[in-house]
Amino acid sequence: MEAIKSRLIHRVAINANKTFKAVHSSKILPPIGVSVRGDIIGIPNPISNLRPITFHIPPDETYVERKFRLKKEQVHNWHEEFWKHHNIRFMLERKEYVESMKEKKADFGPLTPEEISVFYKAFLDKYWMTHMWYNIEWYKHNLNLLALALKVELDRFRRKLFSHE
Length: 165
Hints:
Layout: H1 2-23, E1 40-41, E2 53-54, H2 63-104, H3 113-126, H4 128-162
Antiparallel strand pairs: 1-2
Protein backbone atom coordinates (compact mmCIF):
# COMPACT_ATOMS: atom_id res chain seq x y z
CA MET A 1 0.00 0.00 0.00
CA GLU A 2 2.83 2.41 0.88
CA ALA A 3 4.57 1.69 -2.43
CA ILE A 4 1.39 2.48 -4.35
CA LYS A 5 0.86 5.67 -2.35
CA SER A 6 4.48 6.69 -2.93
CA ARG A 7 4.15 6.14 -6.69
CA LEU A 8 0.87 8.05 -6.74
CA ILE A 9 2.42 11.00 -4.88
CA HIS A 10 5.35 10.95 -7.30
CA ARG A 11 3.01 10.83 -10.33
CA VAL A 12 0.84 13.69 -9.02
CA ALA A 13 3.94 15.79 -8.31
CA ILE A 14 5.36 15.19 -11.79
CA ASN A 15 2.05 15.99 -13.52
CA ALA A 16 1.49 19.06 -11.39
CA ASN A 17 5.04 20.25 -12.09
CA LYS A 18 4.53 19.76 -15.85
CA THR A 19 1.32 21.77 -15.68
CA PHE A 20 2.97 24.50 -13.63
CA LYS A 21 6.00 24.72 -15.93
CA ALA A 22 3.76 24.85 -18.99
CA VAL A 23 1.94 27.87 -17.57
CA HIS A 24 4.77 29.48 -15.60
CA SER A 25 8.42 30.02 -16.34
CA SER A 26 11.07 29.65 -13.68
CA LYS A 27 12.19 33.20 -14.35
CA ILE A 28 9.55 35.88 -14.59
CA LEU A 29 10.48 38.46 -17.17
CA PRO A 30 9.26 42.06 -17.26
CA PRO A 31 7.30 43.28 -20.28
CA ILE A 32 9.50 44.21 -23.23
CA GLY A 33 10.85 47.73 -22.96
CA VAL A 34 10.12 48.06 -19.24
CA SER A 35 13.03 48.81 -16.94
CA VAL A 36 12.77 47.11 -13.55
CA ARG A 37 14.75 48.18 -10.48
CA GLY A 38 13.43 45.59 -8.06
CA ASP A 39 12.37 41.99 -7.66
CA ILE A 40 9.68 40.59 -9.94
CA ILE A 41 7.00 38.49 -8.25
CA GLY A 42 4.82 36.13 -10.27
CA ILE A 43 1.46 34.47 -9.76
CA PRO A 44 1.23 31.74 -7.09
CA ASN A 45 2.25 28.20 -7.87
CA PRO A 46 -1.00 26.18 -7.79
CA ILE A 47 0.59 23.47 -5.63
CA SER A 48 2.90 25.24 -3.19
CA ASN A 49 0.78 28.43 -3.14
CA LEU A 50 4.04 30.43 -3.12
CA ARG A 51 4.79 33.13 -5.65
CA PRO A 52 7.92 32.70 -7.77
CA ILE A 53 10.39 35.54 -7.44
CA THR A 54 13.01 36.74 -9.88
CA PHE A 55 15.47 38.65 -7.74
CA HIS A 56 16.84 41.87 -9.19
CA ILE A 57 20.56 41.84 -9.98
CA PRO A 58 21.95 45.37 -9.82
CA PRO A 59 24.66 46.15 -12.38
CA ASP A 60 27.12 47.11 -9.63
CA GLU A 61 26.32 44.16 -7.33
CA THR A 62 29.09 43.53 -4.82
CA TYR A 63 30.29 40.15 -3.58
CA VAL A 64 28.32 40.52 -0.32
CA GLU A 65 25.15 41.61 -2.16
CA ARG A 66 25.50 38.67 -4.55
CA LYS A 67 25.95 36.27 -1.64
CA PHE A 68 22.82 37.71 0.01
CA ARG A 69 20.76 37.48 -3.20
CA LEU A 70 21.82 33.88 -3.82
CA LYS A 71 20.97 32.95 -0.23
CA LYS A 72 17.50 34.53 -0.64
CA GLU A 73 17.01 32.46 -3.82
CA GLN A 74 18.14 29.31 -2.02
CA VAL A 75 15.75 29.92 0.89
CA HIS A 76 12.88 30.67 -1.48
CA ASN A 77 13.53 27.45 -3.40
CA TRP A 78 13.70 25.53 -0.10
CA HIS A 79 10.29 26.95 0.90
CA GLU A 80 8.91 26.06 -2.53
CA GLU A 81 10.04 22.44 -2.31
CA PHE A 82 8.80 21.96 1.24
CA TRP A 83 5.34 23.37 0.59
CA LYS A 84 4.99 21.61 -2.76
CA HIS A 85 5.61 18.20 -1.17
CA HIS A 86 3.55 19.03 1.91
CA ASN A 87 0.55 20.22 -0.09
CA ILE A 88 0.64 17.20 -2.40
CA ARG A 89 0.56 14.92 0.65
CA PHE A 90 -2.27 16.98 2.10
CA MET A 91 -4.37 16.86 -1.08
CA LEU A 92 -3.91 13.11 -1.52
CA GLU A 93 -4.65 12.28 2.10
CA ARG A 94 -7.67 14.59 2.17
CA LYS A 95 -9.00 12.95 -1.00
CA GLU A 96 -8.57 9.50 0.55
CA TYR A 97 -10.32 10.66 3.73
CA VAL A 98 -13.26 12.19 1.85
CA GLU A 99 -13.69 9.03 -0.23
CA SER A 100 -13.57 6.79 2.83
CA MET A 101 -16.08 9.00 4.66
CA LYS A 102 -18.46 8.98 1.70
CA GLU A 103 -18.37 5.18 1.69
CA LYS A 104 -19.35 5.18 5.39
CA LYS A 105 -22.12 7.78 5.09
CA ALA A 106 -25.66 6.84 4.11
CA ASP A 107 -26.33 10.20 2.46
CA PHE A 108 -23.84 11.17 -0.23
CA GLY A 109 -23.86 14.89 0.50
CA PRO A 110 -20.73 16.92 1.14
CA LEU A 111 -18.86 16.40 4.38
CA THR A 112 -19.74 18.70 7.24
CA PRO A 113 -17.12 21.05 8.70
CA GLU A 114 -17.03 18.85 11.81
CA GLU A 115 -16.28 15.75 9.73
CA ILE A 116 -13.50 17.42 7.74
CA SER A 117 -12.02 18.97 10.90
CA VAL A 118 -11.31 15.42 12.12
CA PHE A 119 -9.07 14.96 9.09
CA TYR A 120 -7.35 18.33 9.59
CA LYS A 121 -6.49 17.53 13.19
CA ALA A 122 -5.27 14.03 12.31
CA PHE A 123 -3.13 15.43 9.49
CA LEU A 124 -1.57 18.09 11.72
CA ASP A 125 -0.93 15.53 14.46
CA LYS A 126 0.66 13.15 11.96
CA TYR A 127 3.04 15.79 10.59
CA TRP A 128 3.70 17.89 13.70
CA MET A 129 7.35 16.80 13.80
CA THR A 130 7.80 17.77 10.15
CA HIS A 131 6.30 21.20 10.87
CA MET A 132 8.50 21.63 13.92
CA TRP A 133 11.60 20.75 11.87
CA TYR A 134 10.47 23.17 9.14
CA ASN A 135 10.03 26.01 11.65
CA ILE A 136 13.44 25.41 13.23
CA GLU A 137 15.12 25.36 9.82
CA TRP A 138 13.17 28.44 8.77
CA TYR A 139 14.44 30.34 11.82
CA LYS A 140 18.00 29.28 11.00
CA HIS A 141 17.62 30.50 7.42
CA ASN A 142 16.10 33.78 8.59
CA LEU A 143 18.94 34.42 11.04
CA ASN A 144 21.44 33.70 8.28
CA LEU A 145 19.60 36.10 5.95
CA LEU A 146 19.48 38.72 8.68
CA ALA A 147 23.24 38.46 9.20
CA LEU A 148 23.86 38.77 5.45
CA ALA A 149 21.47 41.74 5.21
CA LEU A 150 23.39 43.44 8.01
CA LYS A 151 26.67 42.82 6.15
CA VAL A 152 25.16 44.29 2.97
CA GLU A 153 23.98 47.41 4.80
CA LEU A 154 27.32 47.85 6.57
CA ASP A 155 29.13 47.41 3.25
CA ARG A 156 26.88 50.03 1.61
CA PHE A 157 27.37 52.41 4.54
CA ARG A 158 31.15 51.96 4.36
CA ARG A 159 31.16 52.56 0.58
CA LYS A 160 28.98 55.64 0.96
CA LEU A 161 31.11 56.97 3.82
CA PHE A 162 34.41 56.58 1.97
CA SER A 163 33.23 57.46 -1.53
CA HIS A 164 33.28 61.17 -0.70
CA GLU A 165 37.00 61.25 0.02
